[in-house]
Each structure stands twice: as C-alpha cells, then as structure tokens.
Write a structure and sequence with these properties.
about 500 residues
Length: about 500
C-alpha cells in the first residue's frame, strides 16, 4: 500500500501529460485522486489504530507520526485535486488559461502530491531531503504556471530561497551522519530513523546541537518560519488557489514534520532543540502580526496567517510534554483543514471579482452567499474561535506555555492570537457586510465544489464539539511515541 501512494500519483501524472482532451484529463485526475486518497486514509488509520510502524522496504516506513501526515495529505490532497477541476473550468471560461495546458496542470499537481507522500514515508534522511527538494521544484512550476511577470518572479524567489535553505538542511544531515557513524558503525544504516532513534542518547551532543541548527534553518525556510519566510507570501499569493491550499495546508506541514523528526533525535541529548523551537515559534507568531494587520491582498493575508500558525505548531513541539505535543499535532491537522478551505473559497471569490485586493471584494454575502458563508466559517475556525477544533489545539499549547514557562509566554501567545483574530475578522467583515456593486449578478447554486469545502469545516466542528474515544486513543499513541523519542 505504501508503494501505491507513490505509484498512483505518478501514473496519474503520466496519463494527464498525454495529448488527450480536457474531459479525459479531468477523469484521470478525479480517479487518481480518489484512489490515492483512499489508500492514504486506509494506511494512516490502520497504523494509528495498531500503534506500530510498518516497514515494507529499505527506504520507506509509516509509523505513528508519519501516519498523521499521510492522513493530512490524503484528505487535503484529494479535496484540492478534485476542486481543481471546477477551478480550471472557471479559469478557462474567463480566458485566463489555455485548455491545452489543463493536462499539464493536473499532472504537476499529482506529482506535487506524490513527492509530499514520499517526504513523509521516507525512512532515510537523504531520501526525505531529496523528496522535499522535489516538492520545491514541482510546486515552483505550479506557482509560475500562468506565466505572468508577478507569478514568475514569485516562482523564482521561491525556488532560490528554498533551495538555499535546504542546502543548510543537507549540512545538518551530514553532521547527523557523522555523529551516527561513531555509534552505529555501519554506513548503510546510519541515515535510517529506525536505527537512529534507539541510539539517540549516545550521539555526540555538540554535533547534534550544530546539526539541529542547520536543520532548523534549512527546513524552517521551507516551513515559512520567521524570519526565513520571505518567499511564502509571494508564492501563496501568485499561485492558483488549489496550489496555495496545498502549499499552506500540506507542504508547510511536511517541512515541520522533518523538523520534528530531528527534534526527537536531538532532544535525547539535551533540551537545546526545544528551547530553539520555542524561540522561533514565538518569533513567527509575533513577526507575522504586523503584516497581517496591514494587508490589502486577500491571499497574502492568508499567507501571513500561515506564518503565525506554523509558529504555534513549532511552539507546541518545543514546549513538549503531553499538552504541547497534543496541541501541536491537533494544530497541524486543524490548520491544514481550515486554511485549505480558506484558500479554496478565496479562489472562488477572486475569480468572481477578478481581483485579489480586499477593497475591491465587496458584498460577498450577496454575490456568493454559499461560498461566502464557507469562507467566513473557515476564517472563524482559523482564528481559533469555538466550536472549531483550532480553539482546542491553541488552548492546549497555551496551557502548556503557562505550565512550562510561566505567565509571560502564555500572555504573549494569547495576545498575539487575539490581535490576529481581530484583524482577520475586520477584513472579512469589510468584504461581507459592504454593499455589492450593481454590475455583479446576485446568488449562486450549491455545487460539488461547495460540498468539498464543507467536509473540512464539518471535521473542524466535530473535533471542537466532540472527539470520539477512538480518535483520542490514536492521538495518545502518537503523543506517547513522540515523548518516547521515536522509540516504539
């Protein structure tokens, strides 16, 4: 099944690259996405229920932690790929995309999803690095897909900054390899997680500190941590909305996953990595705040919101403990669900208004009542409002902050979250409650795209109101795995 997660997107991409017509490309994309998503959900739920890892080969594995990421990619990846069909139809109707490029777009999205699966399934540090670099190359082509001056500039900025950042991660891997050779001895197994975690406490602490600094800078650049986030607002704002949803909801989590992996390794030799994660988490939250409050571009607003939420996840991981890890894991899932819906609904709004500028998007409740209701619900969810799941995850991280570091850290956390929520609601209110210009028609019909966007919202509400015992059991297994330092 693990090989299917890599094989199906690759075969679907090849089929979409064939010189066929739009209808066949759409069929291949829909069938491939559903098959991949079904396999991902089966693998993740089976692994989480069993509480034991699966190693089908030398370079692939799925354990409790990677199963969470497989679940995120499976849900968000499938929804975004299916939504892409409707999105591209609107773009072709508006004359913004040549129908002959449709197959290439579908194929690149499938390859993008496939490389993210490889990144979280890799049991080898080097293979994971290659996969994450692969996500950069494929997603950069998608960011610049429309070929406009601004999109090409954003794509080049994205690929240059992330490639330079990922080079630092390679230095961290080399240092980790050097530290592991002195303990394991056999070079062919020195880069495998399953062999590194049991001997983590025996690794050279000084080497591991230096390695983690390089890894945090490298993968932190990819994750959009402040101040290495400079590519993120441009790439998210210029990419097609389904791609923006994948970038923010899934790709950033893949980079965070890599940081968590190294943190579990480095934390066995001391609490240096945890303190560093707390610092960068707070910096990302505070650093994103002023940019959120002054934005006029709706997609850049959502991009800077991602910087803040990545800071919350990293802060939870750095604080550690049951509450910290629980909050971080829940926030990874919740942010992926909420932010993907925000970008997808924002994509429908920008297509309808032919603009991404907030002052020009007026009266969304009158023009698109269904889409605007979904947009407002997902924005409330991202802001951490009850009864959505992000309220629970942020409460866990805040409680752990008060418990581990006293009132100062907890106060800063709550103030940043409150101010960001106020700013987001202010901009959303201006779009929703302003008068619709007379040139726009009013109303819309419920469609399959709306059903796709409602699914994550329902999951967020369900999690915020009631979490089934089975889900709590699976979550506790992941948290126990992380507290144990990745040792089953």
């Amino acid at each position: 099944m693990l090989y299917l997660l890599l094989l199906i997107p690759a075969l679907t991409a090849v089929a979409c690259f064939l010189p066929l017509n739009t209808r066949w490309w759409e069929r291949f994309n829909v069938v491939g996405s559903i098959l991949t998503g079904t396999a991902a959900l089966y693998i993740s739920l089976q692994t989480l229920q069993a509480g034991s890892p699966l190693w089908p080969g030398r370079f692939l594995m799925v354990d409790q932690l990677s199963a969470v990421l497989v679940f995120i990619i499976g849900v968000i990846g499938t929804i975004c790929c299916l939504y892409t069909v409707t999105y591209l139809r609107a773009d072709r109707a508006n004359g913004e995309m040549d129908s002959r490029k449709t197959g290439w777009f579908f194929g690149l999205v499938q390859l993008f999803v496939g490389t993210m699966y490889l990144a979280v399934l890799a049991d080898n540090l080097g293979v994971m690095w290659v996969a994450i670099e692969g996500t950069t190359i494929v997603s950069a082509l998608l960011v610049g897909f429309y070929g406009t001056r601004t999109s090409l500039e954003a794509a080049w900025k994205y690929i240059i900054i992330c490639t330079v950042g990922i080079a630092f991660a390679m230095l961290g891997i080399i240092l980790t390899f050097h530290a592991a050779r002195g303990v394991l001895g056999a070079e062919e197994i020195s880069l495998s997680w399953r062999f590194l975690y049991p001997v983590a406490s025996s690794l050279n602490p000084n080497l591991m500190k230096l390695a983690f600094v390089f890894v945090l800078v490298g993968y932190g650049t990819k994750a959009g941590l402040f101040p290495m986030h400079t590519w993120l607002p441009d790439a998210h704002s210029q990419a097609p909305s389904p791609v923006s949803a994948l970038l923010s909801g899934v790709l950033l989590n893949c980079a965070i996953y890599a940081i968590i992996r190294f943190h579990l390794l480095a934390s066995a030799t001391g609490d240096f990595s945890g303190r560093l994660l707390v610092l960068f988490g707070i910096m990302s939250m505070v650093g994103a705040l002023p940019f959120i409050l002054v934005q006029k571009d709706i997609k850049r607003l959502l991009a800077y919101s991602s910087v803040e939420h990545i800071g919350i996840i990293v802060l939870g991981v750095g604080l550690g403990g049951t509450l910290g890890y629980t909050g971080a894991l829940l926030h990874m899932v919740n942010h992926a669900l909420g932010k993907s819906v925000l970008f997808l609904s924002a994509g429908t709004l920008t297509q309808s208004y032919h603009s991404k500028l907030i002052p020009r998007i007026k009266g969304i409740g009158q023009l698109l009542p269904i889409t605007s209701a979904i947009f407002m619900a997902s924005l409330l969810a991202i802001g951490g409002s009850p009864p959505f799941g992000l309220f629970i995850s942020e409460l866990n991280v805040a409680t752990r902050g008060f418990e581990a570091s006293g009132p100062v850290l907890g106060f800063i956390f709550l103030m940043v979250v409150a101010v960001v929520f106020t700013g987001m609601i202010y901009f959303a209110g201006k779009m929703y409650f302003s008068n619709l210009p007379s040139r726009f028609p009013r109303g819309e019909r419920f469609s399959a795209a709306h059903a796709l966007m409602l699914l994550p919202i329902c999951l967020l509400v369900l999690q915020g109101v009631y979490m089934p015992g089975m889900v709590q059991s699976m979550l506790s297994k992941v948290v126990s795995y992380m507290i144990a330092g990745g040792v089953n």
